[in-house]
From TrEMBL:
PROSITE patterns: G_PROTEIN_RECEP_F1_1 (PS00237), G_PROTEIN_RECEP_F1_2 (PS50262). Pfam families: 7tm_1 (PF00001). It is a multi-pass membrane protein. This is C-C chemokine receptor type 5.
Length: 380
């Protein structure tokens, strides 16, 4: 795939048709990982996220369960991101010009960042709510309501759109190169350019600082759980709410999963400045033997592998819900039986589901009332 390697003064960007072609020549593991791994997440996410959204936003789950609003919105946001990422992979890795055009370039990059920001903020939202419910139970009746959760989700959507709006300025279609590229005005100043400063600041805030705040909330929640587990309060609470531990564990598992994946991808991305480009006028053979270029291409391969693996959190929350949520599993079975229309599975589901009402964080007047109760009004 190399071109004009005998011309030492030929610029690297002039010898290859695109940056992807350069990476395929000198750093093939990255493009290969980008083509192989994400389709697994698309397959899982395009099935699991709609099911999760349907269950969490269903009347039975969201009626007295403010956390269900966050989780339902999270499922929709993740599904949107996976769709946009699919377009990105088709464009970058497979060479299909899906948004290489004026206006569509700017709109795409704006939309591409909105669900990334929103998913992180939604996890922060229900984690903060869980902190209030566990550590300040007497404030739960005021702050942990379905109505308030809907308002907060709307505010987070607007805030995410505001943060992402800068991408519509940073990116533009270059008629000269025929590609969607960084706007020259946004790239002026190199390390101190608007593009570099804005990207660094927003990435550190949304994908570094926010997950760390989530971690702090989780630590406080775990500490409070361990503290109250030493007295009879938990025993009395568990007699009223057998699903308390399970529901808390579900939310903790989701937020810890986000922390591990998001922080890992952010940290490896922040190391970009430590690996500068080499001399672009070198021949291909000189580039392969140059330590600066070799370090950069090795870094890019490692970074891409980590990034595509960390994309899993946009697709795999469904498995966490199924593994940690007994009621969620029942709802999945209910959907799979087409709302009880399959006779050989209907009995299995209906015996356990008919009169249940589930709440992770509800406002039913009980102390730390994460309840799993029966109510005749909810019978199917």
């Amino acid at each position: 795939m190399a071109n004009n390697t005998s011309e030492p003064l030929s610029h690297l960007m002039m010898r290859y048709p695109s940056r992807t072609a350069i990476l395929e020549e000198f750093s093939p593991v990255g493009p290969m990982a980008e083509r192989i791994v994400p389709p697994f997440w698309y397959f899982i996410g395009f099935i699991g996220n709609p099911i999760s959204a349907t269950i969490w936003l269903g009347q039975r789950m969201r009626r007295n369960n403010s956390s269900a609003i966050y989780l339902g919105a999270l499922s929709i946001s993740d599904m949107l991101f996976l769709f946009l990422h699919l377009l990105h992979i088709l464009h970058v890795a497979w060479g299909h010009d899906l948004y290489n055009a004026p206006t569509s370039c700017e709109i795409y990059h704006f939309l591409f960042y909105v669900p990334q920001y929103l998913s992180t903020f939604l996890v922060l939202g229900f984690t903060a709510e869980r902190y209030v419910a566990v550590c300040h139970p007497f404030m739960k009746e005021k702050w942990c309501t379905v109505r308030r959760a809907i308002v907060i989700v709307f505010i987070l959507i607007v805030f995410s759109m505001a943060l992402a709006s800068a991408q519509a300025y940073i990116w533009t279609y270059s008629e000269h190169e025929g590609t969607c590229n960084i706007r020259p005005e946004a790239a002026e100043g190199n390390a101190w350019s608007f593009w570099n400063i804005w990207s660094w600041a927003t990435d550190v805030f949304a994908f570094g600082l926010v997950p760390l705040v989530v971690l702090v909330f989780n630590i406080l929640v775990l500490r409070e759980i361990f503290k109250i587990s030493r007295n009879d309060l938990v025993k009395r609470q568990q007699s009223r709410s057998g699903n308390s531990t399970a529901s808390t564990f579900t939310l903790l598992a989701v937020s810890f999963y986000l922390i591990v994946t998001q922080v890992s991808a952010t940290l490896v991305g922040c190391l970009q400045q430590a690996f500068p480009n080499g001399n672009p006028l070198m021949t291909d053979e000189e580039i392969r033997n140059d330590s600066t270029w070799s370090n950069l291409f090795t870094y890019l391969e490692v970074r891409k592998v980590i990034e595509v693996i960390c994309l899993s959190h946009y697709a795999c929350y469904f498995f966490i819900y199924c593994l940690t949520g007994k009621h969620f599993r029942k709802e999945v079975m209910f959907l799979l039986t087409f709302h009880g229309r399959l006779p050989f599975l209907t009995a299995l589901v209906s015996k356990r589901r008919g009169k249940e009402r589930y709440s992770m964080v509800s406002t039913n007047g009980g102390l730390m009332s994460e309840t799993y109760t029966t109510n005749a009004s909810t019978a199917i």
